[in-house]
Amino acid sequence: MSILRRLRHFIVVPLIAAMTFLSMPLGVAQAGLIGSEAIVAAETNAANRQAVDAFLQRQDVRDQLQTLGVSPSEADSRVAALSDAEIAKIAGSLPTDPAGEGALGVIVGAVIIIAIVLLITDIVGLTSVYPFTRPIR
Predict the structure, then answer these.
(1) Alpha-carbon gap, residue 51 to 48, rounded angstroms
(2) What is the pLDDT of residues 19-58, one digit of tens each?
(3) How far apart are CA 102 and CA 134, in angstroms?
(4) φ, ψ for residue 27 (rounded to 5)?
(5) What is the pTM for the complete model shown?
(6) Domain ranges of the chain
(7) Are the C-beta atoms of 56 and 62 separated by less than 8 Å?
(8) Would you tell me how many other CB atoms lie within 10 Å of the CB of residue 33?
(9) In whole angstroms, what is the distance from residue 99 CA to residue 106 CA?
């Protein structure tokens, strides 16, 4: 029993210090609403940065940069330093469909979609455009 009384000092003092420390107020948490605009803007900025980075990773762009005397690593660092508004301006001017490169792809796509819609409406019996279809009705 005398051993416990001697050890009591070594157990009680750290225990009191720990309890005192844990009972102190830490900090006040601040909670607020985040608007939808802020979330959409953040996602748009991230998408714009990815689009510009993907454009700079293309081999033909890297070759052209080297032809103009700009190293690809320097171009990457300069793009990383751009503001969100500048990135949005650059991303807006990038070609969105490099394979199409013109209005011909859009026109062909629109004609195909219109033909499919007319075919479906012929089959349903709403129109009579194609002579080879028979309406369901």
Answers:
(1) 5
(2) 888 888 777 777 788 888 888 888 988 998 898 888 888 8
(3) 37
(4) -160, 160
(5) 0.44
(6) 35-96, 97-137
(7) yes
(8) 6
(9) 12
